[in-house]
Structure prediction request, 286 residues.
Amino acid sequence: MLAVVIVSWNVRELLRACLASLRADLAEGAPGARVIVVDNASADGSAEMVRAEFADVSLIACHHNLGYVKANNLAMRHLGLDKAAAEVQDSPTYVWLLNPDTIVHRGASRALLEFMQAHPRCGLCGPKLVNPDGSLQHSAFALPGLIQLALETQPWLWRFRNTRLDGRYPAARYAGPPFRVGHPLGAAMFARAEAIRAVGLLDEGYEMYAEEVDWAVRMKAAGWDIWCVPQAIVTHYGGASSAQASERAECLKWASRQRYYYKHYGPLKRWLAMRLVPRRYRARRC
Prediction:
């Protein structure tokens, strides 16, 4: 069984379009799938819209904004993914964490499900993402290292951004068969419940940003494979929620990255990484 989790905050119209596209796709590719929307105390009528127009969707309406990671974990606990499978009735086999600023193309869920079923050691995968104009959006990345960090923060290296040095995969890879990756973009992560139980839920030390990288690292360490499946296509608008609080979002991005460096880098690499973090964000509370 498939469960889809969507965490939403003040993006009612995008959420409506996402749910409509998802309903059409699941009807063909995964009938019987559960859809859960966690509304993070939106003030734009998002929760009321879901109740009125999508009666088949389970709504968790929060009284305050939990943040992206905690809200996803709330839904996954609701699905029993923090417990052994034997302890939970009707536990899903797969969970798709989907952003509300996405449009699911027909056949996406089927392609992801069929890939997972054919590759039992795949713990986490993602679809091919495209921009609203249909152009390619990089959907997966190599695990971040010092080179990627330097390319982002050092202007004299900016000419190398969006290249392989920056953790990007060649565009041609997205026109071919599925391929192994460091991690998928968090906008549409498709995870195996068994892998989640093996490594745990998302790390709530991240409010948002870098949580998908951390999850992928933990899954790889536990022996699971990470893939991109270009046959599944999802349009991703990007940044719809974070744009509403752009300065805080930027602060959270760097806070999350610093948590990632301290958690997964050795002392020397961590020290070098911290020298590359913009000074105004070093160890700053958001």
Observations:
- The first strand starts at residue 2 and ends at 8.
- The radius of gyration is 18 Å.
- Residues 94 and 192 are 5 Å apart (CA to CA).
